[in-house]
Each structure stands twice: as C-alpha cells, then as structure tokens.
Amino acid sequence: MACANNVTELIITGLFRDPEVQRVCFVLFLPVYLATVVGNGLIVVMVSVSKSLHSPMYFFLSYLSLVEICYSSTVVPKFITDLLAKVKTISLKGCLAQIFFFHFFGVTEILLLVVMAYDRYVAICKPLHYMNIMSCQLCHMLVAGSWLGGFIHSIIQVLITIPLPFCGPNVMDHYFCDLRPLFKLACKDTFVEGVTVLANSGLIALCSFLILVSSYIVILLNLRNRSAEGRHKALSTCASHITVVILFFGPAIFLYMRPSSTFTGDKLVAVFYTVITPMLNPIIYTLRNAEVKVAMRKLWARRRTQGWNEKKTEGWR
C-alpha cells in the first residue's frame, strides 16, 4: 500500500565519497565547465556577427551550442558546488525541475543533431536545390520543432514522476537528479513507470539514431560518384557532426540499453555526457572546420583592433 508523500528534501551521495577526491574533482571540473560556456558562447557570437557563417549549417550549429550551454548548466554548477559540501541536498521540487530541464535540453540536442544531418543530406545530395529547400522559414521551423519535441518529452517524464509517493529513504545514489535513481526511492513498485519512461526515451533515441545512420549511409553512397576533391570537401563538413553524434549517443546507449544493477559505473559514464562532451563540441567544430577557424581569427583580430583604437583614443585625451 502506498504511503503518504512526506519527503521534501533529498540527500545526494555525489560522485565520490572521499573529500580529497572531491576537491580534486572540483579543481578539474570547474575549468571544464567554464570552457564549455566560453567555447559554446564563442560559437554563438561568431555565427551571429560573421557574415561568412550566415548559412543554415551554422544557424543550426549556433542553436546546438546554445543548447549545450543550457544542458550543461542544468547539472554541472550544482555538481561542482556540491563537491565542496559535506552534505549534498536538493529539494524534491528542485529535483523534479532538474529532471525536466535535463531531459528538455537533452532531447532538444538530439533533435537538433537530426536536423543538422538532414541539412548535410540536402547540401550534399541535392546541392542545386539546397537554398530553395533549406529556406529561412524552414530552418526556423526545424529549430522550433526541436525545442517543442524536447518540451513534450520532458513534460511526459515529469508527469509520470510527480504522482509517485516518496516516504523514505531520501538518499539518492547519484550526483544529480535523474529518473532511474529517483524511482528507487519511491515507496511503491515503479515497474510500469520505469517501462513507460524507458519507452519514451528509448523511442526518441532509437528513431533519431536510425535517422542519423540512414542519412549518412545515403550521403556516403551518393559520394561514390564524386571526384576525390568533392568527396574530401563533403566529408570534411560531416566529420565534425559525426564525431559529436558518436560522443553523444555512445554513453546514452551504454546507460539506457542495458539493465541497471549499481549506479557506480553509471555515474562515471554520466560525467562524460554531462561535463566532458559539452566542452568537446566547440573544440571539434573549431578544429575540423576551416570556415569557423577563419571567422574566429577575424573576430579576434577585430577585437584586438578595437582595443588598440580605444587605447589610442584614451591616450589622446
């Protein structure tokens, strides 16, 4: 029989129990998070101010970077501050809010990756009709659809979780709020809720992954008849996107496509996709993309010139 819901605060065990290890993690992960915000923010600024990057591909990339900042900020700031706390707590409402935004931005990112794959498919397989197909209106609709899809998904997850009774214990074996460790704390059988949540998340991830794989198979088949130079140019525009897709879906497949026993391994894998991957994305797109590197150099040169002119003006006063 389900008991009354009398838990209002949860205790989080964190990533590690050893205080010394936690301090080391704080020193390591704080610069990583700052690099995530700065790196992705730089891409957003570059795309907005650089005329050479005003194309559908970079339009989607700027939104992907924005989502990366939001996605990482949902978990990492509290995770970093908790590394220095003796007792790590979060309210039940705060936990549900974190779950909502974590899934919201996570699924929005998945759908944006699918949109970017479609953009590359049109650019490579139908180059003569690219600008007609990828119109400004369609680009905005695809981005809006990605946000809407993420919202609907996360609303479903939270609506499934809210009715669950939590009457103790209130210790969650994780470093942030997620559905699987939270379900362990419910004082009722959560098999149906677990299957529903898994089906909801799994269906989105599986369909998106199949679409991504199919799109790049079609692209590779289409490139067989291109010249070596044409193949190299086309593949260079896809390489960064494929790398990001592998980094994003790899840990997700490991976590959700297998039965869970303990959360020790899950927590270490979760660090990769919540802390590390959002930082790697701007590095991958910068190193693999000549246009982004040129735009970054121009932006840096413009900034230095403005700074020099400001100093000269101050000197003349």
Automatic annotation (TrEMBL):
Protein name per the record = Olfactory receptor
Q: Where in the cell is it found?
A: Cell membrane; Membrane
- Key words, A-Z: Cell membrane, G-protein coupled receptor, Membrane, Olfaction, Receptor, Sensory transduction, Transducer, Transmembrane, Transmembrane helix
Query: What family classification does the UniProt entry report for this protein?
Result: Belongs to the G-protein coupled receptor 1 family.
Transmembrane residue ranges:
26-45, 57-76, 96-118, 138-162, 203-223, 235-256, 268-287
Q: What is the originating organism of this protein?
A: Marmota marmota marmota (Alpine marmot)
SUPFAM superfamilies from the entry?
A: Family A G protein-coupled receptor-like
Instruction: Output the superkingdom of the source species.
Output: Eukaryota
Q: Name one Pfam family in it.
A: 7tm_4
Question: Which PROSITE patterns has this protein been placed in?
Answer: G_PROTEIN_RECEP_F1_1, G_PROTEIN_RECEP_F1_2
Q: Which PANTHER family match?
A: OLFACTORY RECEPTOR
GO annotations of cellular component type: plasma membrane
Residue limits of the G-protein coupled receptors family 1 profile domain?
39-285
MF annotations from Gene Ontology: G protein-coupled receptor activity; olfactory receptor activity
Membrane disposition: Multi-pass membrane protein
